[in-house]
Amino acid sequence: MPKFLHTADWQMGRAFTRFETEDGAALVEARFEAIETLAQLANEHQCDAVLVAGDVFDAQTVSDRTIRRVFNATKGFAGPWVMLPGNHDAALAESVWTRAQRLGAVPENVHLALQPGVIDLEPRGLSILCAPLTQRHTYGDLTEPFSGYETPEDFLRVGLAHGSVQGLLPDEIDSTNPIAPDRAEASRLDYLALGDWHGTKQIDERTWYSGTPEPERFRNNEAGNALIVEVSEPGATPNVTSLPTGRYQWHQWRETLAVQSDLDQLLERLNALPESAVVDLRLEGSITLAGEETLLKALSVAEARFRSLRCERSGLQLAPTDEDIAALKADGYVGEVVESLRERQQEGAQDDAARDALAILAGLLREREQEASQ
Ligand SMILES: [Mn+2]
Which InterPro entries does the entry link to (predicted)? Predict the structure, then answer.
């Protein structure tokens, strides 16, 4: 019974420059490890092939080393791999793929679908109908010719394409690289393996986006999986299983703090995240001096625990309570300064200088207090 692994959107060579150097490097490494994981899964599940539905590479200009490392990472699975060019790695006359071939980096069991047509994987009983992108954007449906492709009668007809299923995906109005929503049925496909949408998404019983095996952005939904597809015989309904492959989970939280329990809940949620979290926080609202102290300490602990933690606090106003101010024991001139910084913050929305000055001053006063009590 033919079985294959469906994956896509590896985006190899993507640099994570917005992150700390060590975190960015770890995120890059995780993508190579994801390919090794796919190879391992293909073995474990005794797959007949691995199908990669486009955007193996993030750009045509990735380094030779990246190209070689990508193919090296496939070595764990000795069966056939079929790789399809997507919009990021389109099969231009001169492309990342032709460079890979010139480098001699492509193993014999890896088929590059650089031209539209059918790749028959003979002993496996699989016909792969390929619709590679030969430019970054197209406006016609490249899967249309699938209907005219003849395949051996006892072979599965499996489509491989990269683009947007029309009318079904959010945020994709006006999208390029359109794919007809009824392609599988119209072209008598047993299964249509799609790439471009980075989350795992079922379109119909024969059509799926596998999503990227390793999440690489915050707005992904359901990213970090691979699909194992089993079809008992031509025409049978595919049995599709989603398996987790991702190492890191990305979380982007936008929180507004107003009362103490908001902060408590935020820290509780943060605590519950695993070490493999990549966290992007943006905090707004207001926080007391005591709350700020708790927050900073928790962030310091969290940033050492998670793969990455970034927190944007410029929209979070420091609102010292009367207890906060009393605890500072600021009198005389210092007391007046504290008071005027408080006022400036309340007047000017997001007065960063006043906020920072107040935080620094509060910190210094607290230190002085601690020293005095020793
Ligand atoms: Mn794409």
Answer: Calcineurin-like_PHP, DNA_Repair-Maintenance_Comp, Metallo-depent_PP-like, Mre11_N, UCP033093_metalloPase
What is the Å distance from ligand 1's center to 135 Cα? 12
In angstroms, the CA 355 to CA 287 distance is 11
Domain boundaries, the chain: 3-244, 249-373
CA of 58 to the centre of ligand 1 (A): 9
Q: What is the pLDDT of residue 220?
A: 64
Give yes or no for residue 234 having a pLDDT over 90: yes
Buried b (16+ CB within 10 A) or exposed e, 269-297: ebeebeeebbbbbbbbebbbbbbbbbbee
- The secondary element (H helix, E strand) that includes residue 253 is strand 249-257
Q: How far is the CA of 336 from the centre of ligand 1 (A)?
A: 58
Task: Output the CA 339–ligand 1 centroid distance in Å.
Answer: 54
pLDDT band at 349 (very low <50, low <70, confident <90, very high): low
Question: For the domain with range 3-244, which CATH number is right: 3.40.720.10, 1.10.3210.10, 3.90.1150.10, 3.60.21.10?
Answer: 3.60.21.10
CA of 9 to the centre of ligand 1 (A): 7
Digit-coded pLDDT (tens) for 155-191: 999 999 999 999 876 665 557 899 999 999 999 999 9
Ligand 1 geometric centre to CA of 217 (Å): 14
